[in-house]
Amino acid sequence: MWAPSRHTVWINLGWKFKRLKIVHAKFLGTGGVFVPHGGETRGKAVLEHVAMTGDASVWVTFHEGGLVLRNVTCRSTCQIAATGSDRNVKLEISGCRFLNTEEPGVMKGGLRLHHVKEARLTNTQIGGMTASFTGGVKLTLEGCRFDAPGFYVRQEQKGRIGKTKISRCDFASEKLVFEGPRGGREKVTLKECHFRGDATAKPDEILRYRIKAQGVQIVVKSPSPTPHDLAGPGKPK
Predict the structure, then answer these.
(1) Which residues pair with 41 in a beta bridge?
(2) How many C-beta neighbours within 10 Å does residue 197 have?
């Protein structure tokens, strides 16, 4: 599906669809791709080279199926959820930018994932208010840049948070919060990541000052003294 520039265009996925593909589109003002509040959908959607300005965003809940975002830019908060981690819902995000709004003095935007079974993010920048990953079974973050003040990975069920893989990411977030199930002993490794402001810090110092962990063990392995810039260079926005 090709879509030209439009003001306030809403695409309602409904309760079931087979496949939706949107390429080279621009949403202006408000609108975006959504599922009505309290609803859910079944199907697979693909967005490629899509720009969303103003309050336009992606706000969807899946019962089964999934979503692919490639080279999507958004300046309002995007939320992608599933009705439960046991649902076969998969998410692929690559080369995307979730940025803060252009409104002066206003902080909003970012990305929230809830109970998506498998989520893989590569070479993606997340700014705005928060980068939040809750529930799910398998989370992979590779070559991403996190400029949002808040970074959260939360998992209540045992045997899942240990499947989180984070590598070659650039973190400007002031605090990285990881929450596992109570009494959990699973391990999450941050491999070859760069921590802005702590370029020369040792792993134990990064753990002490930048990371808060409960119910999970965090390992900082081979931190990079320079940013990878795989999600694009520049100062955080």
Answers:
(1) 62
(2) 10
| Helix H or strand E segment including 204 | helix 203-209
Helix, strand, coil content of the chain in percent (nearest 5): 5, 50, 45
Q: Cβ contacts of residue 86 below 8 Å, gap of 6+?
A: 117
pLDDT at 231: 93
Q: How far is 189 from 219, CA to CA, in rounded Å?
A: 5
Cα Rg of the chain (Å, integer) = 17
Average pLDDT of the chain? 90
Give the model's pLDDT for residue 102: 64
- Reported confidence tier of residue 2, pLDDT bands at 50, 70, 90: very low
Domain positions in the chain are: 6-221
Is 111 in contact with 91 (CB distance < 8 Å)? no
Q: Which residues pair with 215 in a beta bridge?
A: none
Q: Which of 123, 172, 210, 121 is nearest to 111 (CA)?
A: 121
Please report where in the chains the tokens 């809830």 appear, as a residue: 114
